[in-house]
Amino acid sequence: MLAAWERFVQGEDHIPGVRPLVAISWHRCREQYRVDPHLTEAPVAVAEPDHTPEHDVVFAELGFRAASVAHEVGNLGGVVTVTDATGRILAEWGDQATLARAGDSNLAPGFCWSECAVGTNGMGTALEAHGPVPIRGAEHWCQAFHDWVCAGMAVRDVVTREPIAVLNICCWRSRLPASAESWLANAVTMTQHPLKRRARDSGAELVAAYTQARARSRAALAAVDTAGKVVIADDMAGVLLGVPARTPAVDPTLRWNPGLPELIAAVRYATSQAAHNPEWVGSTQIFAHLADEPTSITVRPVFSSGHLIGDLVSFGSSDGAQLLQAEGPAHPCVQPRRLVATRGNRMVLLRLPEVSFAESQGNDVWLSTDQGRLRSASLSLDKLDCELADVGFLRVHRRYVVNLSRIREIERGLKGELILVMDDRTNQMVPVSRRNASAVRRALDI
Predict the structure, then answer these.
(1) Contact, 313 vs 299, CB < 8 A?
(2) Nearest CA to 313 among 279, 352, 275, 270?
(3) Which residue, among 418, 414, 413, has the nearest Cα to 435 in the 3D structure?
(4) Is residue 1 packed enough to be buried (19+ CB in 10 Å), middle (13-18) or exposed (0-12)?
(5) pTM to 2 decimals?
(6) Furthest CA-CA distance within the chain
(7) What are phi and psi of 243, to 5 degrees?
(8) pLDDT tens digits, 334-358
(9) Pairing relation of β-strands 230-233 and 163-172?
């Protein structure tokens, strides 16, 4: 593993024998975050995200679970930590000698252990992945941490799937207990139970708010959660959003995903505004399903016990403040030299010309490449679009980003719609949505 780490740090891409989870993390550290592999200590945490009361409950619950095993972990020479969503260590428990040694690397409260700060590690990599994340020895990106063995797992918001906190166990030059990963998974599952219950309750409250608003207005109306997923919509809103009408989806795992990036952006912007002003109401325009022109919407945040649970979206109205046309990404988009994909247990690094197009399918992003169809390491087509926008790729549909240099032909459908025939082994066809047709024509000068 150390030999593979040395080769990758020096710029080599072919590193057989390295777990895909680790290889992809190393790639982020080298290409995206530019973390110095010879860093010797974690930096002081600077970012201070707003913690909701629900998040404070999660921190307290994880603290209780960490403290309950502190003695057992301490007897093994280990340390248990709890971090927030930025990788800031909030508290730690365990063996005093190991805690003192950990302090030499700033493995202590108040310091940041996100991937962008210190590279691959149990806490930071857990924020980027799902499930327990073990990082052993030379799998750490920074050489100074190669003597540590860690395992972390994130507690995630059950609606937005964004991380809230991480529970982590680490040892110095020794193996973790065999039960470490199962204990982490169980602790996180137990911590998320009340989150799921509150999310279901919030779904029922959104349906009630929708019912009250529906009785007062004739405008097409839908209730969406904080992730932009539809909890309930009337007949017209259901058509515009492409979801079943008058079919409540209270459970957060069963809510309807309309697949409209502008709606998600509007909901995120509304969330940020409502956090400072609960009375805020805003409006904007989005491209809805089956609509040739943008549709005006009004977004009204819905609160329960002072906690934002979602929004009511009215179509055809423009009340309140005008939303910004675009919300900047939380982190600057870094243009990649390569795209990362996975094939079984291997990481595949692709040159950009090798990729014909990217397609969003369910919860995955797939790449059509000269090596066949591969699963992208990126879980978001929006993020991929951001990274590739200035290197010859273009978003042509809510589900597709294409390599403009790989377009062989353009067909016109019976209703005038454009269809791209790609330059690959099977000449695959990619649809162009009406709203993106003009951008395609400009990009191809037709």
Answers:
(1) yes
(2) 270
(3) 418
(4) middle
(5) 0.80
(6) 74
(7) -130, 160
(8) 666 788 898 877 888 899 999 999 9
(9) unpaired
